[in-house]
Task: inverse folding
């Protein structure tokens, strides 16, 4: 791990430890078949080149107003984030990636099925790296329960807020190879950005998201949660007057 003079920390030694039987189950491929052999070869290739990395910093909440919060001198516009950080002072903005090596390897697969397998393998590398970053933060900063929010996961916190988040973390492209496109998507695509923060009760953005049949859903949609916890008082009062 490296620490630079802006207190941004880089994890560039994250191992990729894939589990073939688990992957085969996920892909619904039986062992000892031609497809299983192809996946095993891809997994060997991926493991040989993968270099998942992460970058994060310790940042502090400077101020809050009704719909925004200032963290490390940078303002973020989200009512939900602002309420979630109501009694929080220290937060951990981060970007974690499966890495440019896996991205290029995945892009180079010219067979559609192999490319799909490579995509799932790269996603697995990203998920493992995310879990390692979380474990590292919890251990190093003696955190209890934590949650994360990511720009673009909710209408309340639009994808354009990737810019201020990236601004908090310095030159991500040079450090870990992650850049933003004009439409605010990250390249490599197997990357996740966000802010991790301590919570008393676990929060998942999915609780406020109505998207049906999302394969990544982590919690059921709660139709009353926004009104219960996040609706601004003025708005709630004017609703009551109608
Ligand atoms: S349900 Fe899916 S799209 Fe909605 S916040 Fe969760 S992971 Fe994102």
Result:
């Amino acid at each position: 791990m490296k620490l630079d003079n802006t207190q941004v920390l880089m994890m560039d030694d994250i191992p990729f430890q894939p589990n073939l039987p688990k992957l085969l189950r996920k892909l619904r491929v039986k062992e000892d078949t031609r497809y299983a052999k192809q996946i095993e070869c891809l997994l060997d290739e991926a493991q040989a080149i993968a270099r998942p990395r992460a970058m994060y910093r310790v940042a502090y909440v400077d101020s809050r107003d009704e719909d925004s919060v200032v963290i490390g001198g940078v303002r973020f516009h989200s009512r939900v984030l602002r309420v979630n950080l109501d009694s929080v002072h220290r937060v951990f903005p981060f970007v974690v990636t499966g890495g440019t090596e896996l991205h290029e390897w995945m892009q180079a697969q010219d067979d559609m099925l192999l490319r799909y397998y490579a995509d799932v393998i790269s996603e697995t590398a990203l998920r493992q790296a995310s879990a390692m970053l979380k474990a590292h933060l919890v251990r190093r900063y003696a955190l209890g329960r934590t949650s994360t929010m990511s720009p673009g996961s909710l209408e309340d916190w639009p994808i354009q807020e990737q810019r201020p988040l990236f601004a908090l973390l310095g030159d991500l492209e040079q450090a870990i190879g992650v850049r933003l496109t004009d439409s605010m998507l990250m390249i490599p695509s197997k990357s996740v950005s966000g802010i991790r923060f301590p919570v008393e009760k676990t929060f998942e953005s999915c609780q406020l998201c109505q998207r049906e049949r999302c394969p990544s859903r982590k919690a059921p949609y709660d139709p009353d949660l926004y009104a219960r916890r996040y609706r601004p008082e003025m708005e709630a009062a004017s609703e009551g007057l109608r």
Summary: The first strand starts at residue 2 and ends at 3. The chain has two domains: 2-203, 204-242. Confidence is low (pLDDT under 50) at residues 1-5.
